[in-house]
Queue: 3 jobs
Job 1
Amino acid sequence: MSVQQKKIHPYKFNMWLAIAAMIMMFAGLTSAYIVKRSQPGWESFSLPSVFSYSTAIILVSSVTMQMALKAFKDHRMSRYRLYFAITAFLGVVFVVLQINGFYQFERLGMRMTGIGSNAANSFVLAIAGLHILHVLGGVIALLVIFLKAFGARKRSYDSIPVEVVSIYWHFVDILWVYIFIFFHLLH
């Protein structure tokens, strides 16, 4: 194996750096949650069942993302487009289910912000809300790369952009599973 083949692509390296930063941010937030929950007035809660459904959706999206990557590497562009589109769609469904979960919190009388809110609820909003933003960023990246597959210019079979988006997508999936388990274990 040559030296060039052993080097990590700069895009992948940058993605791993970004993932490291996101890990530190979410580790800090969940650590702060653990510290703050010992304070007086902290309310316990249970996650509405819609969060379980969204977890299943995001796990399925990881499978479709991997299928899209494999199809791309096999030059099976119609399958690649199909699985990529399904992945993006599942990402949107995940976000919609998450937002629905926050509305369920509100219907249960658990205010997330403002007067009458509790720090526990605000932490849930901050942690899960930041995750939702990261998923939306992933959906946008999926759509940009998906649209490039239909571009009029000569099609490139460079798998690096697809691999980078795949790495990110799997990360946000794993991150949600961590957050989901974290909230279940603490309540």
Job 2
Amino acid sequence: MNALAHDPHPHDDTQRRHAWQVLEAVPDPEIPVVSIRELGILRDVRRAGDDVLEVVITPTYSGCPAMSQIAEDIALALDSAGITPYRIETVLAPAWTTDWITDDARSKLRAYGIAPPTGQCGSHQPAADAGQVVRFIPRPVAAPLPSCPRCDSPRTERLAQFGSTACKALYRCLDCREPFDYFKPY
């Protein structure tokens, strides 16, 4: 089961619940068919000690160029919904993992033509438990190749370690011959 961001305290204030609902609709700027919550980028919406609403996000990797756009999209969504005051906190620990991608997002990625990550990295800890250390388990040397998102053939080959973004690799199906991005597990 994926470590899914959700509102862990539904009994808390109405503004927090409303913020979760609003942010559910914020798409990832690089893969607009999935939301930032579905990808596990949106980690928490909480009340800070100064009573300001904090939106906690974690980048898919520390150099992700989309984080400033994600922060702008979050701000626009919250402003449009009249949710103020707030601040956006970017946290790097625990590090984001593809284990946080929801099952729905994996299906949406496949339908969009991106092979979702295969296997698990072994990290299921939500960011709210920042005291925990993320430990990645090594993948077997002969990790299964991703299936083609177009024809579902398991006969694929890697063309390049990096695809359209650094978090994806470029593959080709040996049956339908179509190239596709594969969301690398980490």
Job 3
Amino acid sequence: MRSLKWIGLAFALAAIAAIGGWRYAVEWRPSPSRFPVQGVDVSHHQGAIDWPAVRRAGASFAYIKATEGGDHRDNRFAENWGEARAAGLRRGAYHFFTLCRSGTDQARNFIATVPAEPDTLPPAVDLEFVGNCAARPSREALLREIATFLERVEAHAGQHAILYVLEDFDAHYRVTEAIDRPLWLRGLFRQPRYGARPWTIWQASAFRHMRGVRGGVDWNVMRP
């Protein structure tokens, strides 16, 4: 019986440690003293957002999903775009680049959705396999379509775009080698170690819990 009690105690302590570890993980963010500019990226998946609460939680900027592919528009973009600004956050819009639509169609969708306004962050293009279509164009074909997209979107925005690229996507297509743009790279709890250049934005968490947002949210820092 005594051994069973010790086993039960061990399980209880392990459960407490796991809960504590999870709470630490979901509340963690990089040191604000080392990385003073931090913020979120969001889409309709976060639902209604209390932007003043997000600002109080330490965010000074937000990237907001605007479009995907050639015809999808995030149904919370306009609301998030206006309310983030009203709360005092700098804003940028991002586009999820699908592998089965032309760069021309996708640029047209983004331009029709995102207003060209002063003092916004550079537009961002999201390049990843997760959630994308099944098409896998050749590297040459994909780079050509991305270049077309960038040419049109950058002319609209009046500034260079930033590339959000996941590691497996870059390993397959070597986008960061071919396209000289600032990089937004992902490394959960540690700085990313891929890409042809050092990161400009680091996505440090994909599930931070904070006031103002229901559930987990992506948390990012800008290089000082």
